Every structure is written in C-alpha cells, then in structure tokens.
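User: Can you predict the 3D structure for this chain?
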Amino acid sequence: MTDSKNLRTAMLAGLVAVIMIGLGFAAVPLYNLFCRVTGFNGTTQRYDPAAAAEEPQVLSDTISVRFDANVSPKLPWKFHPERPRDTVSIGARDMAIFIAENNSPHPITGTATFNVTPDQAGKYFTKIQCFCFTEQVLQPGERIRMPVLFFVDPKIKDDVDARDIQEITLSYTFYPVDEGKKAS
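Assistant: Here is the predicted structure, written as structure tokens:
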C-alpha cells in the first residue's frame, strides 16, 4: 500500500514540476501579451491596418507629446529627438523624427526599447511605424533620421483614469545588440 502511495506522490510531484517548467517558459510571452493588451507599464499599441475596422476619429481635443531619447553607456551613439515636444490632435496621425549618430570607428547595431508615461496612456498610444521594431545598423560616423508614425486613440477620452492626461512622454533607450562586443 505504501508503494502505491509513494508512486502517486512521485507522479504528482513530477506533474507539478512539468507544469512549473511550462509556466516558466510561457511567462515572458504571456507577460508581453498582457502588456500589449492592457497597456500595462506604459506598453504602447502597434497599429495593424488589416485588423482595424476603420480609421480613428480625429477629435478637436489635443494632447502634448514629449519625446525622450537615451543611450546605453555601452553604445557610442548620439541619439535625440528632432523636436522634443509636439501638440497633436487626438486621433490624428502624427510623425516624430529621432536622430542617431554612430561616433565609433566601426559599424554598430543597436536596438531601442520604449515606454510611455503615464502608464495609463500606453494602451491609447498607437505606433504605426517605428524604428524600434527593427535593429538599426549605423556605419562609422553615420547619422540617420528615424521616423515614428503614431496616433493617440480617441478612446482615451472615454477612460476615467486617462481622459484628463494633458501630456504623454514617449521614451526610447538604445542598446547595443551584441553586448559581448566592445562598442568603443
């Protein structure tokens, strides 16, 4: 009798271990999905024209968008917005330009992470096109202009937690893609 109890206990423990390992592997994709759906932690939305039923309505209300640019100390780039602030009509498409320059004597690949503050605005800030969706390769001394096409979804005005937001900050930080390489 104790052998069958031990076998059941061992099988249950094995099953729990397999489930925990599976949840460990699924945690990152599930967290990313959660953030994209809810805008949690300032995660922006990505516009998919095929999935959009219609273009958003443009409101007469405006909102200020501040652009912030940062670079990892391991990346010898200059990076800044062409204009640090813009006032946009809610629902209207707008474009911001960011400028990056490689100050090193060799090509470097960088990638940008981003977020939006306040966090409640993340699910209403929709990027149509962004340099952050792909890696950027800059040759020695190369300077490039990188556009971000975006809009603020009019649904922000229906959200009691977000409708009074007057300013949204879109922040980027560039990092070297290959951390193992010395980027100097």
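The chain has a mean pLDDT of 83. DSSP finds one helix and ten strands in the chain.
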